[in-house]
Amino acid sequence: MEYHTQTKTTTKTTKITHKGITSVQQESTTTRRKSSLASSSVSVVTHNSQVPPGKSPPEFIMKPYPVTLQEGKSAVFRARISGDPKPQVQWKRGDKACTDRCKTRYETATQEHVLQIEDTVIEDSDTYKCVVSNPYAELTYSFTLVVTENPDKVDFKSLMKRRVKVPMIQKEEKRVPDEKEMMEILLHVQKKDYEKVCAQYGYTDFRGMLKRLKQMKKKKQEGDSVTILQQLQDVEGHEDSTVTFEVQMELRDPNNAIIHWLKNGELIRPNVSLGKFTLKQIGMKHQLVISKLKQKDVGEYSIQVNEKTLSAKLRVIDELLEIISKLKKTHVKERDSAVFELKLSKPMQNVEWSFNGKPLKRSDKYDIVVLDGGTTHQLVVKDVRAADRGKYAIAIADQRSEAELVMEKEPIKFISNMKTVRVKEKNAARFECEINAKEAKVRWLKNGQEIPESAFHSGKYKVVSDGRRHELVVEDAAEGDAGQYSVVITQEADDKEYRSGADLIVDERLATLQSGLSDQEVRTGHSAEFTCILDDEKVDGVWRKDGQPITESDNITIVKQGAVHRIMIKNVHDEDMGRYSFTAKGVRTEASLEVADPPEIDPELVEKLMKEPITVKAGQTATLNIPFKGKPPPKVTWLRGDLEVEADERAKIERRKDGTTFMLSKCVRDDSGPLSLRLRSSAGSLIVNILLNVVDIPKPPQGPVEFTEHTGQRITMKWKAPKDNGGRPITGFTIERRKEGRNTWVKVGEVDQHSTTFSHEKVEEGKKYQFRIHAVNSEGLSEALESDEVHAGEPYVAPDAPTAPQATNVTKDSVTLSWVPPQNDGGNAIRGYIVERRKKNSNLWVTVNTEPVQGTELVAGKMVEGMEYEFRVRAVNAAGPGHPSPMSQAILIRDPIHPPSAVQDLEVIDTTYSSISLAWKEPKDLGGFTPFSYIVEMKPEDGVEWSRCNMNTLTDTRFTTTGLREKGRYMFRVRAINEAGLGEPCDLGHCVVAMPPPVRPKFKLTAGHKSYLFLKAGDAIRLNIPFIGVPEPKVAWLKDGRALADRASVANTKGFSQLQVASADRSDAGLYTITIENEIGSETFNIHIEVADIPRPPGKICLAEEIQNTVTLNWEPSPDDSPTDRLHYVVLKRDSSTMTWYTLSDRVANTKYIATDLIPGRKYYFRIIAKSELGCSDPSDSKEAWLVPKQKNLFDVKIEKYHEKERESAPEFVLELKDHCIPCGCDCKISCAVTGHPNPKVHWLKDAAPLDENSNCWSTDTYGVCSLNIAITNSKDAGHYTITAKNHLGEVTCGSTLMVIE
């Protein structure tokens, strides 16, 4: 991960000065003053600025404050942290870890990290740090602890103890303090001891000293910001009483004074103490009132006023506790409630109830009640069951009382009996019954005999008991499981057995085949697998091979997976071949397994055949015998090249299962070459390449024989080596000669294989000779290469070669050639010229004229248009044709051509900042020659020379010039070119600027760019907006029509703009507008951002009794309550007997709630908390307690009974339904109140149709309060709801509309 580190530091410093004490030493007295700085600072190190959605860097919700206190006190620092992932917290002193004196802990209830230093000393003064970190950032908050000397501990005696001991030997040398030192001593002495101390130090002017001391104190008080008029005194009180700490002081600047009350060094917060602490100020008196004293309130209480700190201690007097009335044994029927009660001699709140030794807490099962201010304690056990029987105990301090709960059972009844079950084999059979008791013992029987425990352990039977319902499951039912099953139920304190029975019928199971087996061919040593699929997972089957059952082994595995049956053979050999079958009830399928190995030849033989050719002599028989392996036997094919070799008189082919033989008789040299053996079967194929070499005599040397010299002294000749050496290296050449007029050939010489020239000197001048040459190898002599006859000497010399012919006129079917005669005519007049031609790249020369042409010019006709020809000329005299002239240049046969005309319609089709694209049409006149190309040239606007743009041949009529200077101005022209030369140029006539065509600004938005964003506080805002436009548009961001705040950063690059806010809060919500603008136009895009945070607390709570024995709560909504925030409320209550809050409803969508089930005679407090997806707000509490009136007890008066006529009344709505608007996903409760006698029946309708109640929608009717509850509302729940109340006296109806906001 790439880390980007950014550091941000914030420092806050407060200067504090503490006055020191005076120390008396042997020789001099000095006054020390300590000055320290209480400061705090924050440094932030960002590891990664890219924070993913849903994650957040660490942040201090509550920072530890700098503390200044006197030595001996406890210093406590608290910090509350947020961040995702959860940050790690480390406390440091300076740059090192804290010592053992520093205690750290984490308080789960308040989610606070605490650093505590007890019994502080001056040496504890230092800078401390709280370091929190996660993968995205690291925060370091630095704060100071300043410990000062305690002035209350400095008295006269301590000062005397601090004096340096003076040697007792010279008592007469004791120095008397001067007046300044004496004044400092008296400042720390009580007023009654002034005279005694002055006399001790030898001061007799006592009155003058007092006057000067009073003036000194007055000056000192004028310099202090606080004057203590009455010190803080220790206080004691009884439990549950109220005590008050009081201090009287005069403040120099009351408006700017900072006053804090502390307990054991920790700051007291009355607003969250639930009435425990109250701060009061009456004139110059400052009071701390502590109510309902407890032992945990004992400790040291301090008041900090600017730089002064006063302390006092609180002691709580405990009274003797006695139990007046103990718990009593209680008898109760099942499902009723049992009540245990204990009375004490004094109020106690902290009591512990237990059941059979296990502690109990208030829940739906147990109700713990405290009455009479804490002297009466009750435990109500609701809905008593058998499991609730036992001993209940209560423990108060060191006293304990317990009693037993006895429950009486009700007889068992079958709500539903067992029924006969019919299943197929391998299916599970299920017997069910339901009784009216949850706690009962159950036994299961089959055919009157109890099912043994081993059958349950084996998994054959399974018992399921769920309260009143009991089930017996018979797994994999077989025919033997059929019979009569019964259940026997008993319970404690009841000797009777309760029975219910039914029959089990098991039918035979037949299956059908979904997918059968298929034949397979497998290589030896490989694995094979047969698979078949049935339509029933419960059916088993048998695998067979050739009719015999197959058993599993190391090589064979049989697998059943549901309805899929498999048999797998790991290592297949010949003995595994056969017919495999699978048989089940009603099913049979089979297939064959064959072993198929690909053809294989011994690798050493293959390597030898491919490296060493098979060599035979011409006329002999070549025999190739190649063994191989393969199953099934492969097809054998012999190939020569790509053609198959067929058997004939010379070629014989033998094919066997394990090999093949190829015989070729009477081999000739042309039989040499590559042979291929191809083996092919269903298992694979193999090809082996073989080289056959047939050796023979070589081919004759290549001619013609050229005579490089033929004079009267010698004849020198040369030739070329033979094309084929016969398969053996050439060892040399043999030369033979024959004179003119003779038939006998005479050997005249030999040369080695490296020489192809020979000189013969035994010649007679003027004689004609003929020579022949044989090539020689180990097999013998080749056929002869015979030469032409040659003269020894020069009787007639052929003329020299003319010059190369030149074309003077070319048409589409003829060419006119001319040349220069040779300089040497050979000693004989030239009789004419022979002209030869050939096609370009051809070796065949053809004579143009049958008779020698007179003169040095010839018109050659019958030419092919478009063809290229080369020409040469021979001069002819009496000795015959001379040497050919050099070849002419290749001449293309066509009509005459000329350069093309100018191109047409030259235009610019595209421009960018670095390129310009051109297009044109071809010239009207191509110059008589179709193949042509183009040249594109350019120059700067102020340039002179044209430079070529395309370095390669350009045949297309489009071209793009690249590498241009941005916004540069250029001139362009285009010319066509053919073999005749360059055509006329065509230019644009104006300059072209290298920049794209102007484009109106436009956003390149995708589906990922939303116009509405919903974020959580702390999330990062990143808006990435791409756009296009030419010229580059200017970008402007606005928020709600105004400039962005400094916390928002904007980064603009080419075609892209990014707005970023590192950590969003509510102030960042609003309408963000981005505008892009250039010379062509502008465009705007709006993004609405909502930032959600923990909601703010609701407003004032109003209580009212609209319905008897209920309380209607109405409260002002949270300022953050809106349909888009999906805000709901949590309603809690507590009575005056406990400090524990209980939730009445945790999802109230409106600002009204009716609290029911209130106990008369009790006072209740209510609390409202706003809740959203991000968390809960601070609570909002009702200021006054709500008292539910308690009805007075009635007493009996023996008078004649008065029979009053029953007063009947028609239904009437006391409180009608109201319309509701609920966010989607919230719960909704629609309520009204109706009266009537007899009680009316209530029916609910939705959109005039009866309402179908289900788990998502249900109704309740409690003492006339009718409610319709809808859980997790959605759009389908919207509509008009109507309630109808009806009795025999009448019918009333009211309705309301429910709107569900998406």
From TrEMBL:
Cite the Fibronectin type-III domain residue spans from the record: 700-795, 801-896, 899-998, 1097-1190
Entry keyword annotation includes Transmembrane: no
Q: Name one GO cellular component term.
A: M band
Keywords, comma-separated and alphabetical: Disulfide bond, Immunoglobulin domain, Repeat
The protein's matches in Pfam families, at most eight in alphabetical order, are given as:
fn3, I-set, THB
The Ig-like domain is annotated at 58-142, 411-499, 508-594, 1001-1092, 1211-1293
- Which processes are annotated in GO (biological process)? sarcomere organization
User: Region labeled Disordered — which residues?
Assistant: 1-59
Does the keyword Repeat belong to this entry?
A: yes
What the entry lists under Gene3D superfamilies is as follows: Immunoglobulins
InterPro entries documented for this protein: FN3_dom, FN3_sf, Ig-like_dom, Ig-like_dom_sf, Ig-like_fold, Ig_I-set, Ig_sub, Ig_sub2
**Amino acid composition bias (Low complexity), ranges on this chain:** 1-22, 36-46
SUPFAM superfamilies reported in the protein's UniProt record:
Fibronectin type III, Immunoglobulin
For this chain, the family text in UniProt reads:
Belongs to the immunoglobulin superfamily. MyBP family.
Q: This protein is called what?
A: Immunoglobulin superfamily member 22
Q: What is the lineage of its organism?
A: Eukaryota, Metazoa, Chordata, Craniata, Vertebrata
